[in-house]
User: Fold this.
Amino acid sequence: MRATHGSTALGALLAVTLAIPAYAAPFPWLPPPVNMCGETGFDPLNRLPDPAAPPAPLGPMVPPSIDIPVVVPELTPVPLPDPPHDNTRVAQAPLPSDPCRNPCPEVRDTPEPEDGIEESDNTSPRSGSGSGSGTGSGSGSGIPRIRLKPERETIPIPVPGGEGEPAQEAPPRVVRPVEPGPLRPAVAAPVVESVRLVEQVTGHGSNNRTDMRWQVDGTDLGLFWETEPGKVAMVFGDTFGEGWEYGGAGSDTADWRSNALAYSTDTNLDDGLVIDSMVQDSPCHAAELLGSRKIKNWETTTIPTSGFAIGRRQFLSYMSVNHWSRIPGMWLTNYGGLAYSDDGGQTWTKDQHARWENMFGVGRFQVAAMVPHGEYVYMFGTPNGRIGVIGLARVRTADVLNKTAYQYWVDGDWAPAAENSATPLVGGTASELSVRFDAESGQWQMVYLDAAAGQIVLRTAAEPQGRWNSAAPLVSTQDYPMAYGGFIHPWSTARDLYFTMSAWQSYNVYLMHARLNPPG
Assistant:
């Protein structure tokens, strides 16, 4: 039994939080962008309507029907333990020299040329909507029909299953002493001179043609880290293939994978980001890296939140999502965890002990951004949902998978076993953190979504614990409706900040470039 899926990675109903009325004047109308193959892409900017389009017909003042949701409990067996994840992998064949040639015609037909993509205004989840039975007056009476709309609510029932993953030996318990972690004075904030949309990175109409090359029609996030000198990994959240339609995340029947991973060696980001390859489980099909049960109220999905490398081992922080809330901007996690790969990111192992459980829904490190620097890995974390504060922890690189070795920054000290006492790094709430250390300036850069302000913002500091300077706006949802994310490319500088942004309606990833004027 597969669960209903109507949510985005780090999104779902979350992106609705950003449906703030756009008070800024819309941008002038332009036709949707077209890639090198003549395929129409998406434009996430808030634009005026096409002046040549016929006026939209006026709808009736009274809707023809009103749906009343009725929750229908659905008992769902959950075999335990979790079954082993399918790690079938297929090496990618060289891409065709002609970028417009279909690399796998046996997998997917080449699309017919189109005049454009119809853009629906529907932002509600598509899957799991039962057919309603209506009562009331007939059509044409001026009185809307009242329809009862069943909505399944999964009630998981654990049952014995087959063999699961082998048990992992727990690391030895480590207790670090309390050590001082003083604040340094705030550094001068950089001035954001300009921010521009560079290009659409994923989906139909992108130059990467991820829909034809890897069956990635809709996806989000695009978290970066450098896997080795000259090569970056780019990991995505919930990913959908054929059957995905414009208007948000796809249904669970649209080739749903909880996550996917791409590689890039493109150093010239000024004209876009070229994806060289993706981890595949069959020809021209991006694999799911971290498995999920895909059962609502148990484990709906597993979403990566950051990636980093220590030597030849790659790491992912991720969150196990129990369910997406009906309240915009909220979701409940089971835990935040760590996974690792020793084959360059092809296959991953979830560490069974490096987990931050979400007891009573108040865990402080459910959505983490982790950055190795010097002898430590720093973990910036927020709770589940978009209304949490930022906490900070650190661990020695050799102990990154040993949760007992972590120290949490609490009132000027690094303290052990104090994850839910971590002092907030900045005022206000934050989500979807991305942090990097800029070696040239010797400063830390942090980008995150401030949902209350409807902005993706930048802060800088001299030390991970701060003081962090005031937030500099990068992207406003007045200009990019329902934008979220903001994940820094590791080859950014103090002058040129490249980051990915996701847009809920088109549910794809875009590369942005912020030109900064760093203080001297």
In short: Residues 203 and 217 are 4 Å apart (CA to CA).
